Amino acid sequence: MIEDFLREYQGAFIKTGFVILILFIIGLISNILIRKLGRRSGINEAELVLFVVMLQLVYFYLPYL
Q: What is the mean pLDDT of the chain?
């Protein structure tokens, strides 16, 4: 029974894993770029952390809009 379920939805699980991995990589790259650009332009660390947290919330809630 569980084997049939896994066999039937194996492709969907793999696609979902790839999508989650790609979104994680995009979030990581944007996080690194924002921190580098913020430090280079002289923005203090508290503002950078706040901006990164807001960006992560947007990435998390964007699929639900």
A: 85
